[in-house]
Design brief:
The chain is mostly helical and about 475 residues long. It has helices spanning about 20-25, 50-65, 75-85, 100-115, 145-155, 175-180, 200-205, 210-225, 230-235, 245-250, 255-265, 275-295, 315-325, 330-345, 350-360, 365-375, 380-395, 410-415, 420-425, 445-450, 465-480; strands at about 5-10, 30-35, 70-75, 90-95, 120-125. It has three domains: about 1-125, HUPs (Rossmann fold), CATH 3.40.50.620; about 125-160 and about 210-295, Serine Threonine Protein Phosphatase 5, Tetratricopeptide repeat, CATH 1.25.40.80; about 305-480, DNA Cyclobutane Dipyrimidine Photolyase, subunit A, domain 3 (Orthogonal Bundle), CATH 1.10.579. Helix 5 (about 145-155) packs across helix 12 (about 275-295), helix 8 (about 210-225) runs parallel beside helix 11 and helix 16 (about 365-375) runs antiparallel to helix 17.
Amino acid sequence: MKSPVIVWLRHDLRLADNPALYYAAQSGRVIPVFIDDTTTADHCNLGAASRCWLHHSLAHLNDQLSDQLRIFQGDPLAILLALIQHTGAQTIHWNRCYTPHAITRDSQIKQALKSTGTTVHSYNGSLLWEPWTITKADGTPYKVFTPYYRKGCISAPPPSEPLPRPTLELYSDDLTTQLAANDVQPCDLTELNLLPNHPWHHRLTDHWEITEAAAWQRLQRFTNERLENYPQGRDYPALEATSTLSPYLQWGQISPRQIWYYSQQQGSHPGLEEQLDTFLKELAWREFSYYQLYHNPNITTENLNPRFNRFPWKNQPEQCHQWQQGMTGFPIIDAGMRELWQTGYMHNRVRMLVASFLVKNQCQHWHLGATWFWDTLVDADLASNSASWQWVAGCGSDAAPYFRIFNPVLQGQKFDAEGDYIRRFIPELSALPSRYIHTPWEASAAVLAEAGVQLGTTYPKPMLDLKASRQAALDAFASLKQQ
């Protein structure tokens, strides 16, 4: 009988288009392994929402694998070496990860495994184009998204076509018995303690079906029902106009290749070229985030533009807490933050608004926003989170200009004119007329009373003056030029 083959699963919790699983299945009995890596650097530790998503992802994948997903907790190298020793496996397959810590870890593990005579195969299972394959003509990396996408990605060889779901013969021997004399032991999913000790995570699962099949259903529904109006509809948070695939991409219930090719097949009808291009650019923005992280590994903690090291950020914990809780007194901001808390998700335009409000109107450090998003977003992604917050703050690659400070009132009036989104997440304002839904402080006492709103009691008064805070931000940005 052939030696079994180990597949180390990470952010690729699916069966279809999983290169590591597909090629391992061609070699013999497969031992699918997930390792809760306790050696991970602090800045890569999972947030609460991600841990909740991971728990349900692993539970579903284990069901798909007939309860043969082997779960471990500890040092990946020690665990893999123990598995090799006690099962006779001679080959390990995995799909590559692209965070700085993961690149260093995987390189060290690959070298150590090879020194024992183990064969290691690694694949691209989570990106369309790997970061080192796209460069300018002079060999240097792109710094601006549009030429990266148009001149780099589009002119590069197309992404590999998705692989089919493999036919698996699973290794079913009892690893607990085999590893009995070893410090390494498989564990039950519940032993990872991924779910929080409070009932918050139940809210998230009310809004999401965390399965590979659900990811496909969302992709199909988007391309069939929403793609046609995507360029316009995606800016309106009350509409179901976006794909909402980002959390499934983050944990690999679906791959970017599957999205890339399926959406092109479905969107190939005449008249949908613009809509399809707009959607594919959003997928490419995720790629650009990983591209930036690869070429600038400190982007998670350090300003890409060093001038911002002198920026006069304010340290106001109470005001930051108001922002986190959706109690700023600006309805579109508060609706977004409450959507995040209730669902683990936030509409993309509203993400830009709440980020701009924190770093520009409040002049609080983008680290605070990135940390909160990391903990509460089910699609928390180190590359996208870091790159996007730096973009809004003005210190990142291809960043929004410093003078681009979103006015939350005007943005709300433009993209949620009737206040449907606001009413959904701020029920205490639901009875206000649309005329005042974005500016309740402008309503008369009689209007407020009739709507059951008491400013400062049932809903907060604005925490700051928009005009004055905008000017303060502009002055702070201008000071960088003078130093």
